[in-house]
Amino acid sequence: MNNVHTLTRHRDIQAWVTNRRGGPAIARIRDRFGEERAELKLSFDRNARNTGDMARADDGISPCSWTAWFAELDRQQLALKIDPDVDAFELVQRQPN
Description:
Elements: E1 5-7, H1 10-18, E2 22-30, E3 36-44, E4 54-55, E5 62-63, H2 66-75, E6 78-83, E7 88-93
Parallel strand pairs: 3-4
Antiparallel strand pairs: 1-6, 2-3, 2-5, 6-7
């Protein structure tokens, strides 16, 4: 990943995802104690050339609004790390300013 960028601004993240025919999704994951937490996902068209943690319709992932997705992104203090050269991405912890 030579051309790696970390996106934190909502409009930049949304533009990057939608330009690649993607959208927001959330998975509800239970830990061993039965507590539920939200795991952010991105769902892309199966024909799009993308790598990373992509959600698909059969993965038990629920599509959601950008508003809900960004609220959870901010709550968990996450950012989207991308490599535009190969359309790779991952959700990472935000670095303090």
